[in-house]
Write a structure and sequence with these properties.
This protein is an alpha/beta fold. The protein contains six helices and eleven strands.
């Protein structure tokens, strides 16, 4: 991975929010929403040195823009969003370590990540968000805030799981939030809304109006019905 620092933000002890595209695009939807709503500013960029895939345009290929931005505002650092995530474990590990290094540099004490939680439960347009944390003690604290923990053991792969492991190894508290979804191959805006509401509860701050996300969820429903 290649990293470019464009600016040195003047922030101390921020919350770090970091997630990448996953099933249902949930991680990217939430990150992009926060960046748009809070009008964050880019200060660092991560890039893959070599393409992990090419796009066939129909007779000719094009290269994807595989880069992900660190942005900031007030007491937040936001990383990720956009499209995709690195394909190799070594690149995902490098990204996770860089997020940890940035968190330490600015004395961040907390990292939040999120993604999709595949379930067969009938959601009725009201998916739940489940959380998991880096310690039993932290989970007990979260339960007092009336949030639900992940219901069973599972393996969390990709950036949105690995960053929790890197945080735990480095003594940084971290919480993963995973929104329920039934169909992982289409954008799941209501899962994203559920995560945003949970994140607002845990951070005691408003992140923005989610009406547009709800409208996008309804638009996808109409298209699939037709």
């Amino acid at each position: 991975m290649e990293f470019t620092q464009n600016e040195e933000p003047s922030i101390e002890k921020p919350i770090v929010i970091a997630a990448m595209q996953d099933m249902g695009n949930v991680g990217s939807i939430v990150i992009n929403f926060i960046n748009d709503s809070l009008r964050t500013k880019t200060f660092r960029i991560a890039r893959t040195p070599y393409p992990t895939y090419v796009v066939d345009k129909g007779g000719y290929i094009d290269l994807p823009n595989e880069s992900w931005e660190y942005k900031y505002t007030d007491d937040l650092i936001i990383f990720g969003g956009g499209k995709g995530q690195p394909q190799s474990n070594s690149e995902i590990n490098a990204l996770c370590q860089d997020v940890i290094d940035v968190a330490k540099k600015y004395s961040a004490k907390f990292i939040y990540t999120f993604g999709g939680f595949h379930t067969n439960r009938v959601l009725d347009n009201n998916p739940k968000t489940y959380i998991t944390t880096t310690s039993r003690e932290l989970t007990k604290q979260m339960e007092s805030l009336n949030v639900e923990t992940t219901p069973q053991k599972s393996i969390i792969t990709g950036f949105n799981g690995m960053i929790l492991g890197f945080a735990k190894q480095n003594g940084i508290h971290a919480i993963g939030m995973y929104g329920e979804l039934n169909v992982p191959d289409i954008p799941q805006y209501r899962a994203a809304i559920s995560i945003i509401k949970t994140l607002e509860k845990l951070t005691y701050r408003k992140l923005g109006n989610t009406d547009q996300l709800e409208a996008m969820a309804q638009d996808i429903e109409r298209r699939f019905k037709n």
